[in-house]
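Sample A.
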Amino acid sequence: MTKIPLLGKTLDELKSIVEELQMPTFTAKQISEWIYKKRATQVDQMSNLSIKNRALLDDKYTIGCSKPIQVAESNDGTKKYLFKTDDGHFIETVFIPDEDRGTLCVSSQVGCKMDCSFCMTGKQGFSAQLSATEILNQVLSVPESEQLTNIVFMGMGEPFDNLLAMLRSLDILTSDYGLAMSPRRITISSIGIIPGMKIFLEKSSCHLAISLHSPFPDERLRLMPIQKTYPITKVIEELKKYDFSKQRRVSFEYIVFDGLNDSMRHAVELVKLLRGIHCRVNLIRYHAIPGVDLKSSVHEKMIFLRDYLTNNGIQATVRRSRGEDIFAACGMLSTIEKQKQKIKESEIDHLHEN
């Protein structure tokens, strides 16, 4: 019998489990503390549960943690971890150290359906949704887990296309019974799936980052097919209904491509598009990927865009690139080669069996 993971369960669900196993109600809180605060990896480590209750729990349930199977380290200290999911897929997770900050970039899907032209994950295609267990496992199972100050859902996948698992993860990350992180330390990045975005904004207090990349609809559509279904003007129209002038923040990710979206007319249109919304624009250097005929803009143009936006009332920064030498930078995550390798190994095994 396959055991059910406890990682990813809410406190109410743990209460139902202990009730089913005829344990005292307070045992649910003890279990949540062992999983989310003490980072237990085995049921047997829960020493304040009786031996009988541990045996009952262990009979049907497992913690559900699994360590990364591979790590690559960049010259700048960034680390990219490879995880294997229970169904045999692969995902990548990136740890970014920076003075007194430790940021983890987590994945929400195996691959992605959105097919953005500049993204290696999009080129990989979509394979599977990650469960809350698999999302939280990235946070709890990297060696730097205890050092994390910030979490960004900017890895593989579109978080709002896996809305329920993402929201469950946020609940556990921010609840007192869970990891008790401040929502201000967590950012969800999306290309702008409006129905999911609206639910997220109502149910969570975490920050939001929207992939923008061009203020002109025709250009954005060439970069991002989602523009046809959810135009950026409609996304911003929806965002203007919320107050981002206090603790909660909305930002716009803007990869700067040479000769495509780095001109004065783009700067002027960006100001026009974003006027009236309290936000930040993160200008990002494009990281070249195989088979895509796009180039990063020169640094001087990125500085021009930053200064023009800032001088016109929109806070803008040029984001420092991290982990490019290990394919861990923005838009570079992909496990397609691992999947191909797995298929090839399976075919070889099949041949040997015959």
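Sample B, a different protein:
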Amino acid sequence: MPTKHHPLEEIAPATLVTAREHLEEVVAELRQEPRLAIDTESNGFYAYQEKVCLFQISSAHADFIVDPIAISDLSALGELTADPHIEKIFHAGEYDVLCLKRDYGFTFANLFDTMIAGRLLGAKELGLAAAIRGYFGVTLSKKLQRADWGLRPLSAAHLKYAQLDTHYLMHLTDILKAQLREKGREGDAAEACARLAKIEPVIRNFDPEGFWRLAGRNRLTDRQLACLREIFLMRDKRAKSLDRAPFRIMSEELMIRLAADMPNDSGSLAKVKGMTPYLLRKFGDALLESLARGRQAPPPVEPPRTSQRHSNKDRRIFEILRRWRKEQAEHESVEPIVILDTSSLHELARAAAAGEPEPLAGLSDLKRQRYGEALLKLLRPKA
């Protein structure tokens, strides 16, 4: 049965924090709390270089929204995320943890993730809105899911939307922890949340060879590929100067069509499918210059692939493990990833194919205890 909560309009507005002095006062208050709910909003859908644009935090008594655009020094919040005596509650927190590590160098201890808990409990819908609707009978609006959180000023609707991402998390955590205890999944949750605290961001810089990964490039000739490369480089340069996500400058499909058609004047450029009057006006000259360079350039040489190749034995063992995982997940009424993630399956297959004496060495104690016997029968069928 859903737990009754106040209607959305009766929830007191969150406190907006836009000054460092105010932030320090809030953190001094929050430092006394045993647990806090946390979320962030970023602008990766809009900006060339994504950044954290809001930091929402709720205690048992109040909701706060910290504005990182107004406050450059968020180190006080980092003290909270690193404090092992304060439990930090997230929903689908991997993205938030990675962004906060990337932008501010935060460290994390004592995390609990309600989406991880939902997955362990076999929830059919893992989104926060679905959980809040199911447990509390409250329907959250999704209208601002794709909002540009880097814009200022923030409207009252934006602030309310951000606030509700953390407002219910503590109540939700109480319910999910009770269910985890009942199903004997507390250890799984602790293990998964400890891994979440340790993940590290991978900084991805612009790759000038990235055009080789575009869908449709296999249909292009050498000269067309040279044109595609020039268009790809031009798009990134313009995206960076305008601080926009590259796909908002020009779609990959349009770049492929431009390279394939190789228009050489404004008239033929305008006829390319997807070339709008705006794009023609804004980037027409730059596109024609890029195409001219591509027509004169030598054909590009595809860089060697660096992805790890798996042996036939690796792949055969991996498929055996994957089928076992699927059956085990159905038996436990959870998603397959709850049993073992795919990277663990690959490592088990590699170790078994190589004849390593301890193929389960990379697994946690909990996973070895729970699945070790079954896995060894699969990996050492003649033992």
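Observation for Sample B: The chain has three domains: 8-198, 210-296, 312-379.
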